[in-house]
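_Full entry_
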Amino acid sequence: MRTTPQTAPRATGAGGGATVALILATVAFAVNFWAWALLSPLGPAYQELLRLSPGEVSILVAVPVIVGSLGRIVLGGLTDRYGGRAVFAVTSLLGVAPVVFLAFAENYPALLTGGFLLGMTGATFAIGVPYVNAWYPPERRGLALGIFGMGNIGTAISGFATPWLADAYGRRVPFFVVAAALVVVGVVFWVVGRNAPGTRPAAEPFTTRFLAAARLRVTRELAAMYALTFGGFVAFGVYLPLYLKAGYGLTAPDAAARAAGFVVLATLARPAGGWLADRLGGRPVLAVALAVVTACAVVVAFTPALPLATAAFLAMAAALGVGNGAVFALLGRMVPGPMVGSATGVVGAAGGLGGFLPPIVMGLIYQATGSYAIGLMLLATVAAAAFVYCRFALGAKEPKEGIA
Protein backbone atom coordinates (compact mmCIF):
# COMPACT_ATOMS: atom_id res chain seq x y z
CA MET A 1 0.00 0.00 0.00
CA ARG A 2 1.37 3.36 -0.96
CA THR A 3 1.56 5.88 1.88
CA THR A 4 0.16 9.32 1.21
CA PRO A 5 2.75 11.93 2.21
CA GLN A 6 1.67 14.28 4.93
CA THR A 7 1.78 17.98 4.24
CA ALA A 8 3.97 20.06 6.53
CA PRO A 9 3.13 23.73 6.05
CA ARG A 10 6.13 25.70 4.92
CA ALA A 11 5.14 28.73 7.00
CA THR A 12 5.44 26.91 10.30
CA GLY A 13 9.22 26.94 10.18
CA ALA A 14 9.28 30.70 10.61
CA GLY A 15 6.73 30.96 13.39
CA GLY A 16 6.98 30.93 17.16
CA GLY A 17 5.23 27.56 17.32
CA ALA A 18 8.11 25.86 15.56
CA THR A 19 10.65 27.45 17.89
CA VAL A 20 8.71 26.37 20.98
CA ALA A 21 8.39 22.84 19.58
CA LEU A 22 12.13 22.68 18.89
CA ILE A 23 13.05 23.92 22.37
CA LEU A 24 10.63 21.54 24.08
CA ALA A 25 11.85 18.55 22.08
CA THR A 26 15.55 19.34 22.64
CA VAL A 27 15.18 19.83 26.40
CA ALA A 28 13.02 16.73 26.78
CA PHE A 29 15.51 14.71 24.73
CA ALA A 30 18.43 15.91 26.90
CA VAL A 31 16.61 15.00 30.13
CA ASN A 32 15.64 11.57 28.81
CA PHE A 33 19.22 10.96 27.68
CA TRP A 34 20.47 11.88 31.14
CA ALA A 35 18.10 9.25 32.51
CA TRP A 36 19.29 6.75 29.90
CA ALA A 37 22.93 7.29 30.93
CA LEU A 38 22.42 7.13 34.72
CA LEU A 39 23.97 3.70 35.27
CA SER A 40 27.24 4.14 33.38
CA PRO A 41 28.80 6.82 35.66
CA LEU A 42 27.77 4.81 38.72
CA GLY A 43 29.19 1.55 37.39
CA PRO A 44 32.35 1.66 39.55
CA ALA A 45 30.27 2.39 42.66
CA TYR A 46 27.97 -0.57 41.98
CA GLN A 47 30.97 -2.75 41.23
CA GLU A 48 32.45 -1.99 44.64
CA LEU A 49 29.14 -2.09 46.51
CA LEU A 50 27.91 -5.39 45.07
CA ARG A 51 31.34 -6.90 44.27
CA LEU A 52 30.51 -7.27 40.59
CA SER A 53 32.90 -8.63 38.00
CA PRO A 54 33.97 -6.43 35.07
CA GLY A 55 31.73 -8.53 32.82
CA GLU A 56 28.71 -7.99 35.06
CA VAL A 57 29.33 -4.23 35.08
CA SER A 58 29.61 -4.22 31.28
CA ILE A 59 26.28 -6.02 30.94
CA LEU A 60 24.65 -3.64 33.42
CA VAL A 61 25.77 -0.61 31.42
CA ALA A 62 24.95 -2.22 28.06
CA VAL A 63 21.34 -3.24 28.81
CA PRO A 64 19.84 0.29 28.60
CA VAL A 65 21.85 0.94 25.43
CA ILE A 66 20.48 -2.13 23.65
CA VAL A 67 16.90 -1.57 24.76
CA GLY A 68 17.08 2.14 23.92
CA SER A 69 18.40 1.35 20.46
CA LEU A 70 15.77 -1.25 19.56
CA GLY A 71 13.02 0.72 21.30
CA ARG A 72 13.46 3.50 18.77
CA ILE A 73 11.71 1.33 16.21
CA VAL A 74 8.62 1.13 18.42
CA LEU A 75 8.54 4.77 19.51
CA GLY A 76 9.15 5.98 15.95
CA GLY A 77 6.14 3.98 14.77
CA LEU A 78 4.00 5.24 17.66
CA THR A 79 4.96 8.83 16.81
CA ASP A 80 3.78 8.38 13.22
CA ARG A 81 0.48 7.09 14.58
CA TYR A 82 -0.24 9.29 17.62
CA GLY A 83 1.95 12.37 17.15
CA GLY A 84 5.09 13.53 18.93
CA ARG A 85 3.34 15.58 21.62
CA ALA A 86 1.50 12.66 23.21
CA VAL A 87 4.27 10.09 22.77
CA PHE A 88 7.02 12.37 24.14
CA ALA A 89 4.93 13.37 27.16
CA VAL A 90 3.83 9.84 28.01
CA THR A 91 7.28 8.30 27.50
CA SER A 92 8.91 10.91 29.74
CA LEU A 93 6.38 10.29 32.51
CA LEU A 94 6.69 6.51 32.18
CA GLY A 95 10.46 6.90 32.47
CA VAL A 96 10.01 8.08 36.05
CA ALA A 97 9.11 4.55 37.21
CA PRO A 98 12.42 2.79 36.37
CA VAL A 99 14.45 5.79 37.57
CA VAL A 100 12.79 5.70 41.01
CA PHE A 101 12.98 1.89 41.05
CA LEU A 102 16.75 2.05 40.46
CA ALA A 103 17.16 4.51 43.33
CA PHE A 104 16.13 1.73 45.69
CA ALA A 105 17.67 -1.24 43.84
CA GLU A 106 20.03 -3.12 46.15
CA ASN A 107 21.00 -6.20 44.14
CA TYR A 108 22.21 -7.08 40.65
CA PRO A 109 18.96 -8.60 39.28
CA ALA A 110 17.05 -5.49 40.39
CA LEU A 111 19.59 -3.25 38.66
CA LEU A 112 19.29 -5.26 35.44
CA THR A 113 15.50 -5.04 35.58
CA GLY A 114 15.59 -1.29 36.15
CA GLY A 115 18.17 -0.84 33.40
CA PHE A 116 16.02 -2.78 30.96
CA LEU A 117 13.01 -0.54 31.66
CA LEU A 118 15.22 2.54 31.60
CA GLY A 119 16.04 1.82 27.97
CA MET A 120 12.81 3.48 26.85
CA THR A 121 14.23 6.90 27.74
CA GLY A 122 17.05 6.36 25.24
CA ALA A 123 14.52 5.65 22.51
CA THR A 124 13.03 9.16 22.65
CA PHE A 125 15.32 10.27 19.84
CA ALA A 126 12.91 8.54 17.45
CA ILE A 127 10.06 10.71 18.77
CA GLY A 128 11.78 14.06 18.36
CA VAL A 129 12.98 13.68 14.78
CA PRO A 130 9.53 13.31 13.14
CA TYR A 131 8.02 15.79 15.62
CA VAL A 132 10.55 18.53 14.77
CA ASN A 133 10.70 17.56 11.10
CA ALA A 134 6.98 18.25 10.63
CA TRP A 135 7.31 21.82 11.95
CA TYR A 136 9.94 22.97 9.43
CA PRO A 137 10.05 23.34 5.65
CA PRO A 138 12.56 21.11 3.83
CA GLU A 139 15.19 23.83 3.40
CA ARG A 140 15.39 24.38 7.19
CA ARG A 141 15.05 20.84 8.49
CA GLY A 142 18.76 20.09 8.57
CA LEU A 143 19.55 22.89 11.03
CA ALA A 144 16.43 22.20 13.13
CA LEU A 145 17.18 18.49 13.41
CA GLY A 146 20.82 19.26 14.17
CA ILE A 147 19.77 21.51 17.05
CA PHE A 148 17.42 18.82 18.34
CA GLY A 149 20.24 16.28 18.11
CA MET A 150 22.24 18.38 20.57
CA GLY A 151 19.97 16.86 23.20
CA ASN A 152 22.35 13.94 23.37
CA ILE A 153 24.43 16.26 25.54
CA GLY A 154 22.36 14.60 28.26
CA THR A 155 24.94 11.79 28.30
CA ALA A 156 27.71 14.30 29.04
CA ILE A 157 25.56 15.96 31.71
CA SER A 158 25.11 12.55 33.30
CA GLY A 159 28.85 11.91 33.19
CA PHE A 160 29.55 15.13 35.08
CA ALA A 161 26.51 15.56 37.32
CA THR A 162 25.51 12.00 38.29
CA PRO A 163 28.71 10.99 40.15
CA TRP A 164 28.99 14.46 41.70
CA LEU A 165 25.44 14.34 43.07
CA ALA A 166 25.98 10.79 44.31
CA ASP A 167 29.23 11.68 46.09
CA ALA A 168 27.94 14.92 47.57
CA TYR A 169 24.41 13.96 48.60
CA GLY A 170 24.08 10.18 48.43
CA ARG A 171 23.69 7.51 45.78
CA ARG A 172 19.92 7.92 45.43
CA VAL A 173 19.88 11.67 44.90
CA PRO A 174 20.76 11.73 41.16
CA PHE A 175 17.88 9.35 40.53
CA PHE A 176 15.46 11.63 42.40
CA VAL A 177 16.74 14.69 40.50
CA VAL A 178 16.29 12.99 37.12
CA ALA A 179 12.86 11.65 38.10
CA ALA A 180 11.72 15.17 38.97
CA ALA A 181 13.11 16.51 35.68
CA LEU A 182 11.24 13.81 33.73
CA VAL A 183 7.99 14.77 35.45
CA VAL A 184 8.54 18.43 34.56
CA VAL A 185 9.30 17.84 30.87
CA GLY A 186 6.49 15.31 30.55
CA VAL A 187 3.89 17.65 32.03
CA VAL A 188 5.16 20.69 30.12
CA PHE A 189 5.18 18.76 26.86
CA TRP A 190 1.59 17.65 27.45
CA VAL A 191 0.38 21.13 28.40
CA VAL A 192 2.42 23.36 26.09
CA GLY A 193 3.46 21.05 23.26
CA ARG A 194 1.56 20.98 19.98
CA ASN A 195 1.86 18.87 16.86
CA ALA A 196 2.63 20.79 13.68
CA PRO A 197 -0.45 22.19 11.89
CA GLY A 198 -1.56 20.02 9.02
CA THR A 199 0.01 16.79 10.26
CA ARG A 200 -2.11 13.68 9.96
CA PRO A 201 -1.68 10.40 11.83
CA ALA A 202 -0.64 7.43 9.77
CA ALA A 203 -3.58 5.09 9.27
CA GLU A 204 -1.70 1.87 8.42
CA PRO A 205 -0.80 -0.69 11.11
CA PHE A 206 2.63 -0.43 12.73
CA THR A 207 4.02 -3.50 10.98
CA THR A 208 2.96 -2.21 7.57
CA ARG A 209 4.57 1.18 8.15
CA PHE A 210 7.73 -0.30 9.63
CA LEU A 211 8.25 -2.72 6.76
CA ALA A 212 7.51 0.01 4.21
CA ALA A 213 10.09 2.30 5.82
CA ALA A 214 12.66 -0.49 6.11
CA ARG A 215 12.20 -1.35 2.41
CA LEU A 216 13.19 2.16 1.35
CA ARG A 217 16.70 2.12 -0.02
CA VAL A 218 17.51 5.45 1.58
CA THR A 219 16.44 4.15 5.01
CA ARG A 220 18.86 1.24 4.82
CA GLU A 221 21.66 3.41 3.52
CA LEU A 222 21.22 6.08 6.18
CA ALA A 223 20.99 3.40 8.85
CA ALA A 224 24.46 2.21 7.84
CA MET A 225 25.83 5.77 7.74
CA TYR A 226 24.35 6.59 11.14
CA ALA A 227 25.69 3.36 12.63
CA LEU A 228 29.14 4.65 11.68
CA THR A 229 28.81 8.34 12.58
CA PHE A 230 26.71 8.10 15.74
CA GLY A 231 28.13 4.70 16.64
CA GLY A 232 31.62 6.17 16.42
CA PHE A 233 30.59 9.08 18.62
CA VAL A 234 29.15 6.78 21.29
CA ALA A 235 32.01 4.30 21.09
CA PHE A 236 34.72 6.92 21.54
CA GLY A 237 32.74 8.61 24.29
CA VAL A 238 32.90 5.30 26.15
CA TYR A 239 36.29 3.95 25.10
CA LEU A 240 38.48 7.02 24.67
CA PRO A 241 39.47 7.22 28.36
CA LEU A 242 40.83 3.66 28.20
CA TYR A 243 42.76 4.43 25.00
CA LEU A 244 44.30 7.58 26.47
CA LYS A 245 45.29 5.84 29.71
CA ALA A 246 46.84 2.89 27.88
CA GLY A 247 48.51 4.86 25.08
CA TYR A 248 49.65 7.98 26.91
CA GLY A 249 49.63 7.11 30.59
CA LEU A 250 47.12 9.84 31.46
CA THR A 251 45.42 9.85 34.82
CA ALA A 252 41.79 8.75 34.94
CA PRO A 253 40.44 12.31 35.56
CA ASP A 254 42.54 13.77 32.72
CA ALA A 255 41.48 11.03 30.30
CA ALA A 256 37.82 11.43 31.31
CA ALA A 257 37.97 15.20 30.81
CA ARG A 258 39.43 14.81 27.32
CA ALA A 259 36.75 12.24 26.45
CA ALA A 260 34.07 14.65 27.69
CA GLY A 261 35.53 17.32 25.40
CA PHE A 262 35.21 14.88 22.50
CA VAL A 263 31.53 14.29 23.32
CA VAL A 264 30.74 17.99 23.71
CA LEU A 265 32.44 18.98 20.44
CA ALA A 266 30.69 16.21 18.49
CA THR A 267 27.37 17.29 19.98
CA LEU A 268 27.86 20.95 19.14
CA ALA A 269 28.85 20.04 15.57
CA ARG A 270 25.49 18.41 14.80
CA PRO A 271 23.65 21.68 14.05
CA ALA A 272 26.56 22.73 11.86
CA GLY A 273 26.20 19.51 9.89
CA GLY A 274 22.47 20.11 9.43
CA TRP A 275 23.02 23.75 8.47
CA LEU A 276 25.67 22.84 5.91
CA ALA A 277 23.45 20.09 4.51
CA ASP A 278 20.62 22.59 4.05
CA ARG A 279 22.89 24.77 1.93
CA LEU A 280 25.29 22.40 0.22
CA GLY A 281 23.32 19.14 0.17
CA GLY A 282 23.53 16.23 2.59
CA ARG A 283 25.57 13.89 0.42
CA PRO A 284 28.66 16.10 -0.10
CA VAL A 285 28.67 17.17 3.56
CA LEU A 286 28.45 13.56 4.75
CA ALA A 287 31.16 12.50 2.28
CA VAL A 288 33.61 15.13 3.56
CA ALA A 289 32.87 14.14 7.16
CA LEU A 290 33.62 10.49 6.39
CA ALA A 291 36.86 11.45 4.66
CA VAL A 292 37.97 13.36 7.77
CA VAL A 293 37.09 10.41 10.02
CA THR A 294 39.14 8.12 7.79
CA ALA A 295 42.22 10.33 7.91
CA CYS A 296 42.01 10.94 11.65
CA ALA A 297 41.56 7.24 12.45
CA VAL A 298 44.74 6.45 10.49
CA VAL A 299 46.64 9.14 12.40
CA VAL A 300 45.62 8.01 15.90
CA ALA A 301 46.18 4.34 15.02
CA PHE A 302 49.94 5.04 15.20
CA THR A 303 49.71 6.62 18.68
CA PRO A 304 51.35 9.91 17.65
CA ALA A 305 52.53 12.60 20.05
CA LEU A 306 49.75 13.70 22.38
CA PRO A 307 49.22 17.16 20.80
CA LEU A 308 48.75 15.59 17.35
CA ALA A 309 46.50 12.86 18.77
CA THR A 310 44.41 15.50 20.54
CA ALA A 311 44.00 17.49 17.32
CA ALA A 312 43.08 14.33 15.40
CA PHE A 313 40.49 13.22 17.94
CA LEU A 314 38.93 16.69 18.07
CA ALA A 315 38.76 16.81 14.27
CA MET A 316 37.19 13.35 14.29
CA ALA A 317 34.65 14.48 16.90
CA ALA A 318 33.64 17.46 14.76
CA ALA A 319 33.40 15.27 11.65
CA LEU A 320 31.24 12.67 13.41
CA GLY A 321 28.93 15.41 14.67
CA VAL A 322 28.66 16.99 11.23
CA GLY A 323 27.98 13.54 9.76
CA ASN A 324 25.17 12.97 12.28
CA GLY A 325 23.54 16.24 11.29
CA ALA A 326 23.86 15.48 7.58
CA VAL A 327 22.30 12.02 7.96
CA PHE A 328 19.10 13.38 9.45
CA ALA A 329 18.99 16.31 7.06
CA LEU A 330 18.93 13.68 4.30
CA LEU A 331 16.30 11.63 6.11
CA GLY A 332 14.03 14.64 6.61
CA ARG A 333 14.27 15.55 2.92
CA MET A 334 14.15 12.12 1.28
CA VAL A 335 11.63 10.12 3.35
CA PRO A 336 7.86 10.76 2.94
CA GLY A 337 6.39 12.64 5.91
CA PRO A 338 4.17 9.91 7.44
CA MET A 339 7.12 7.48 7.34
CA VAL A 340 9.71 9.72 9.01
CA GLY A 341 9.04 8.29 12.48
CA SER A 342 9.32 4.68 11.34
CA ALA A 343 12.42 5.43 9.26
CA THR A 344 13.96 7.29 12.19
CA GLY A 345 13.35 4.24 14.35
CA VAL A 346 15.27 2.04 11.94
CA VAL A 347 18.12 4.53 11.48
CA GLY A 348 18.29 5.40 15.18
CA ALA A 349 18.36 1.74 16.21
CA ALA A 350 21.27 1.16 13.85
CA GLY A 351 23.12 4.10 15.39
CA GLY A 352 22.59 2.86 18.93
CA LEU A 353 23.74 -0.64 18.08
CA GLY A 354 26.67 0.88 16.20
CA GLY A 355 27.79 2.41 19.49
CA PHE A 356 27.46 -0.88 21.34
CA LEU A 357 29.61 -3.13 19.15
CA PRO A 358 32.86 -1.15 18.53
CA PRO A 359 33.96 -1.00 22.21
CA ILE A 360 33.60 -4.79 22.41
CA VAL A 361 35.65 -5.24 19.24
CA MET A 362 38.28 -2.76 20.43
CA GLY A 363 38.52 -4.50 23.78
CA LEU A 364 38.94 -7.95 22.22
CA ILE A 365 41.59 -6.70 19.80
CA TYR A 366 43.51 -4.93 22.56
CA GLN A 367 43.30 -8.04 24.74
CA ALA A 368 44.71 -10.17 21.91
CA THR A 369 47.38 -7.78 20.62
CA GLY A 370 48.12 -5.28 23.38
CA SER A 371 47.46 -2.45 20.91
CA TYR A 372 44.55 -0.40 19.61
CA ALA A 373 46.15 0.07 16.18
CA ILE A 374 44.28 -2.76 14.43
CA GLY A 375 40.92 -1.61 15.78
CA LEU A 376 41.51 1.98 14.68
CA MET A 377 42.66 0.88 11.22
CA LEU A 378 39.44 -1.16 10.93
CA LEU A 379 37.54 2.03 11.68
CA ALA A 380 39.52 3.84 8.97
CA THR A 381 38.74 1.06 6.49
CA VAL A 382 35.00 1.12 7.21
CA ALA A 383 34.90 4.93 7.05
CA ALA A 384 36.77 4.92 3.74
CA ALA A 385 34.32 2.41 2.27
CA ALA A 386 31.41 4.53 3.52
CA PHE A 387 32.98 7.61 1.91
CA VAL A 388 33.22 5.88 -1.47
CA TYR A 389 29.63 4.65 -1.24
CA CYS A 390 28.34 8.05 -0.14
CA ARG A 391 30.20 9.84 -2.89
CA PHE A 392 29.16 7.58 -5.75
CA ALA A 393 26.15 5.43 -4.82
CA LEU A 394 24.12 6.87 -1.96
CA GLY A 395 20.38 6.93 -2.75
CA ALA A 396 18.60 8.68 -5.54
CA LYS A 397 19.33 12.25 -6.49
CA GLU A 398 18.73 14.43 -3.44
CA PRO A 399 15.68 16.66 -3.97
CA LYS A 400 16.27 20.39 -3.83
CA GLU A 401 13.05 21.01 -1.92
CA GLY A 402 12.75 17.72 -0.05
CA ILE A 403 9.62 15.68 0.41
CA ALA A 404 6.96 17.40 2.47
